[in-house]
Amino acid sequence: MDDDVLIKQFNEIKSAGVQSIIDFHAGYLTMRRALYFRITETTLDFLKSNPNIKNLVQKILLQIKQKNILKKIDDHCDYKGKFHGYWRTEKELKRLYKAAGWSVAKKTDLKNSYKHIAILT
What is the pTM of this model? Predict the structure, then answer.
């Protein structure tokens, strides 16, 4: 959800009389991951601007389309659904919490799953 919707949700929770929230934020963006995205984005921009690579990629995509490769792969995979969300850094999350009138009482994580768990008061 976008920032305005998230702030509205947190405001509604607070106005309902809830004293604290535990936010298991699945879209937490670590600095390592942010760097990875930046490098990937820069690389893709370079590849798109290079006409030789662009032509090669277009030829490959045309072959995939003509041979119906994606359909063949799709037929062998079970659809698991999608998760739509936004990646946010810790600084961005704190700004949103503050805008909604909440403060972080404690921050923790679950090493193998959630990298950001905030207890808000």
Answer: 0.58
